[in-house]
C-alpha cells in the first residue's frame, strides 16, 4: 500500500514538470519571431563577430596566435564563447515568462496547485533548456560549416557529447537565475534593466572572448572570473569541443556547475514559495 502511495506521489510531481515543460515549448514555437531569432542569431554572431575578429590576427605567425589561445586559432577559440552567449542570454531571459504569467494570471493558478515549487522550477527550466539547446546545436553546426575555411572542427564524438553536458548545465544555471529574478521583480522594465546590467560583465569576464590568463595582474577583474559560473561552463565547453587544454581540470568545471545548479534550483523554489501573486 505504501509503495502505491509513493508511486502516486512521484507521478503527481512528474505531471506538473511535464506540463510546464510542454507549455514553454508550445509557447516558443507559437512565437514565430522568437523561432526565427533563435535560428538567425547564431549565424549573425558568427558572421558579424567571430569572422571579423578573427581577421585581427591575419598575417600574424600561427605560433603566436596558438600560444595566446591555448593551441587554437582565434576563430576556434571564439566559437565556444559564442555558444556561451546564447546560453547566458537565453537562460537569463527565461525570467520574462514568469513576469508574463504574473500579468495574465496563470502563475496564480499554478501557485495554488498542490505541487512542489521545485517541480514548477524544473518544468519551466526544462522548457527553456529545450529551446537553449536547439540554439546551441545550431551555433555549433554553423560554426562547423564556417570551420571548413577557418579551422574549427569538433575534436571527437565523445567530446561533442561532453560539450552537450556542459551546455545543459550552463543553461540550467542561468535559466534558474532568470526565473529567480522574474520572481523578485514586479515589472518587465526593472527586470530587463537589471539583466542588461549584469549580462555583459558575466560574458566578458568568463573567458569567452579573452583568455582567463590574459587578465592576470588586473585587480578585481581577474578574481571575478572565478566566481562567475559561465567561466566554468565556457572552459569545459571549449575543451570538450576543440580538445584544447582547459584552464581548470574538467572535473572541477563539472563539480562547480552542478553545485551552482543545485543551489540556484533551491533558491528558485524558495523564491516561488515566497512570491506574492495578486
From TrEMBL:
It is found in: Membrane. Keywords: Membrane, Transmembrane, Transmembrane helix. Residues 33-275 form the ABC transmembrane type-2 domain. The chain crosses the membrane at residues 35-54, 74-100, 121-152, 158-184, 191-212, 248-272. GO terms for cellular component: ATP-binding cassette (ABC) transporter complex. It comes from the Archaea. It is a multi-pass membrane protein. One of its GO terms (molecular function) is ABC-type transporter activity. This is Multidrug ABC transporter permease. It comes from Methanoliparum thermophilum.
Amino acid at each position: 500500500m505504501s509503495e502505491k502511495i509513493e508511486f502516486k506521489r512521484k507521478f503527481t510531481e512528474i505531471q506538473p514538470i511535464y506540463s510546464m515543460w510542454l507549455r514553454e515549448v508550445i509557447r516558443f514555437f507559437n512565437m514565430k519571431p522568437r523561432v526565427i531569432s533563435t535560428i538567425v542569431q547564431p549565424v549573425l554572431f558568427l558572421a558579424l563577430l567571430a569572422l571579423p575578429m578573427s581577421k585581427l590576427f591575419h598575417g600574424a605567425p600561427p605560433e603566436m596566435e596558438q600560444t595566446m589561445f591555448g593551441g587554437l586559432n582565434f576563430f576556434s577559440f571564439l566559437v565556444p564563447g559564442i555558444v556561451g552567449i546564447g546560453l547566458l542570454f537565453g537562460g537569463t531571459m527565461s525570467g520574462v515568462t514568469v513576469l508574463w504569467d504574473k500579468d495574465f494570471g496563470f502563475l496564480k493558478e499554478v501557485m495554488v496547485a498542490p505541487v512542489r515549487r521545485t517541480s514548477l522550477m524544473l518544468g519551466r527550466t526544462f522548457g527553456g533548456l529545450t529551446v537553449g539547446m536547439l540554439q546551441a546545436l545550431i551555433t555549433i553546426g554553423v560554426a562547423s560549416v564556417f570551420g571548413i575555411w577557418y579551422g574549427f572542427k569538433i575534436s571527437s564524438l565523445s567530446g561533442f557529447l561532453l560539450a552537450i553536458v556542459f551546455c545543459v548545465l550552463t543553461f540550467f544555471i542561468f535559466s534558474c537565475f532568470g526565473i529567480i529574478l522574474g520572481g523578485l521583480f514586479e515589472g518587465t522594465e526593472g527586470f530587463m534593466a537589471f539583466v542588461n546590467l549584469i549580462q555583459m560583465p558575466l560574458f566578458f569576464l568568463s573567458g569567452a572572448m579573452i583568455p582567463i590568463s590574459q587578465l592576470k595582474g588586473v585587480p578585481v577583474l581577474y578574481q571575478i572570473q572565478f566566481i562567475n559560473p559561465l567561466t566554468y561552463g565556457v572552459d569545459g565547453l571549449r575543451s570538450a569541443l576543440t580538445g584544447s587544454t582547459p584552464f581548470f581540470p574538467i572535473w572541477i568545471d563539472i563539480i562547480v556547475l552542478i553545485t551552482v545548479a543545485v543551489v540556484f534550483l533551491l533558491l528558485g523554489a524558495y523564491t516561488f514559495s515566497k512570491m506574492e501573486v495578486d
